[in-house]
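Same chain as my last thread, 141 residues:
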Amino acid sequence: MPFTATSGSNRLGVALQKMLVGFPQFHGKQAAQGLNTPEILQRRPWCVTQLQAGMLGRPAVETAKIIDAVILQADDVTELISRLQVPAIAIMGESDYVGPLLHISSNILLGVHVTPHESPEESSCSILGVVRLVEKQAVSG
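reply #2:
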C-alpha cells in the first residue's frame, strides 16, 4: 500500500493491470513479478503459482475492489505518519513502488515490496530494532 496517493504513470499502470483481473493466471504472474525480484522468483517459483491459485479462487470483481481500495483510491497518509509519536521504521525494498518516507527512518533492503520474504534476516533485525526502542521508552518513560 502506498503512503502517498497513487498518481501519474503509476496510477495509469495500476489501472491497466486492473483491467486484466479477469485473467487470473496472467494477473497472478504480473502481481508476483511486481512484488518480488527476478532472483527470488527463480529461487522460489511457487511464489507465482501461489498468487495464481489465489487469483483463481477469487472473483475478478473482488480483486478489482481490492486494487481500488488499496492502491487507486488509497488515502495519502503522509501527514498521519508525520505525527507518529511512537518508534517506527519503514522497511522497503530497493525497487519498492511505495517509495521512501521523509518523516520516519527507512531501511532499504534487497528486494521489491515483500522484503520480509526476500530479505528475512535484515527485515527481522529492523523490526527488532524498533521493538528495542519501544522497550527502552517503556523503561525510561
